[in-house]
Write a structure and sequence with these properties.
The protein is an alpha/beta fold. The chain is about 35% helix and about 15% strand. It has ten helices and ten strands. Strand 7, helix 7 and strand 8 form a beta-alpha-beta unit. Helix 2 runs parallel beside helix 4 and helix 9 packs antiparallel against helix 10. The radius of gyration is 19 Å and the shape is globular.
Length: about 290
């Protein structure tokens, strides 16, 4: 049988060549004021049988699949036993499978024990994509993220104890013109307290369907940052990052004005030099018409 995805369907940029398997539909939280991804969906955990049928269909057509991404935005909201059954199906059906990944909400990591997370790691789930967005407690409330900095540190530390790899994101511009330094400084303080494998930046881009909600929940006039100010945010972020272990840093998401790539702290001088060159007008930025989520 063909696979009929429940649209819209989203996945991280690095999962472009992965088999996307919808384990859940939508997002169980779905209140973040900056995110419109699943506003048209009702959250649901898909039953095992249709998931099994889709795995078998893909296994027959593409037996050499090496990567699988568990969609939608909240696969870890499913019971651990449910996820372990799906992981078993995947590894039994796809002999060349090397990596299974999913998004992780802050609430997911708080609700599951270290032992449950370790079970999922042993079952084949190896990488989690985690949206930090900001380390500022005030801004997290303003964007209705449903998490605090301390809760995120607790959850990410649990995931690390379970030996799960973490790819985290932060959103440049989320504090606007008035709160940008608070946003960046609190974010670096949080990131410096946890051991991540990857850290990426996105630039704030508000879908027209949620723009009014974002401004209303922000509780004061929100003035967006221009490209030059966003480059300054990026520069301050990289200056202040002092991760406890080598950290792969990227700003190659399509929303960013300037693509950066390196390992921190090793490549900090080169990254800062590139940013300073861009601020001086010596590098061409990505045109706005080419940017997007």
């Amino acid at each position: 049988m063909p696979i009929h995805y429940d649209m819209p369907l989203w996945r991280p940029p690095s999962e472009a060549n992965s088999f996307i398997l919808q384990v859940t539909l939508g997002c169980s939280f779905n209140h973040c004021s900056f995110c419109s991804m699943y506003r048209t969906k009702h959250f649901a955990i898909r039953p095992l049988e249709p998931v099994r049928a889709e795995i078998q269909t893909v296994a027959r057509a593409y037996p050499d699949v090496r990567r699988v991404f568990l969609a939608d935005g909240d696969a870890l909201a499913a019971p651990t036993e449910h996820l372990l059954a799906i992981l078993d199906m995947l590894h039994a059906s796809l002999p060349r499978l090397e990596r299974v990944s999913s998004y992780a909400l802050p609430a997911n990591l708080l609700k599951k024990s270290v032992e449950e997370l370790a079970e999922l790691r042993e079952g084949g789930l190896t990488l989690l994509y985690y949206g930090i967005e900001t380390g500022s407690a005030d801004l997290l409330r303003r964007i209705t993220k449903g998490a605090t900095p301390e809760a995120m540190v607790t959850g990410l530390t649990k995931a690390r104890r379970a030996e799960l790899r973490i790819s985290a994101t932060v959103i440049l511009g989320l504090g606007g013109q008035e709160h940008w330094q608070e946003h960046i400084d609190a974010t670096t303080d949080l990131v410096n307290r946890v051991e991540l494998d990857y850290l990426s930046t996105l630039q704030l881009m508000l879908d027209p369907t949620i723009r009014d909600e974002f401004h209303r929940k922000f509780r004061e006039p929100f003035r967006e940052q221009d490209d030059r100010a966003l480059l300054a945010e990026q520069l301050r972020l990289i200056e202040r990052l002092n991760p406890p272990a080598p950290l792969v840093f990227r700003s190659n998401h399509a929303s960013n004005a300037l693509a950066l790539a390196g390992i921190l702290p090793r490549d900090r001088p080169a990254l800062l030099s590139r940013l300073q060159l861009a601020l001086a007008g010596g590098l061409r930025l990505r045109p706005e018409w080419l940017r997007g989520y």
